[in-house]
Amino acid sequence: MLIALYAKDKPGALQVRKDNRDAHLGYIDTTGVVAMAGPLLDDAGEMCGSLVVLDVEDMAAAKAWAADDPYAKAGLFASVELTAWKKVIG
Description:
Largest sheet: 4 strands, antiparallel
Order of helices and strands: EHEEHHE
Number of domains: 1
CATH architecture: 2-Layer Sandwich
Helix content: 25-40%
Number of helices: 3
């Protein structure tokens, strides 16, 4: 099941993102459930959120993955939305 995770950072949290980026990328690598991912960018081109497509068994697994993400544990996000997603193109 594909789940899109859309997360917006808290205002002024760019340094929190930078400080936890290596741990976040390591988590993505070791969990092996990320189909694609990348940061959202603001008008200045700075990272301000995340879009991650998870390939997991069910929504419960997506919620567990999201909760264990080092970004989430660091309190980076103002909001996180998880939505079932269907790949059609690409």
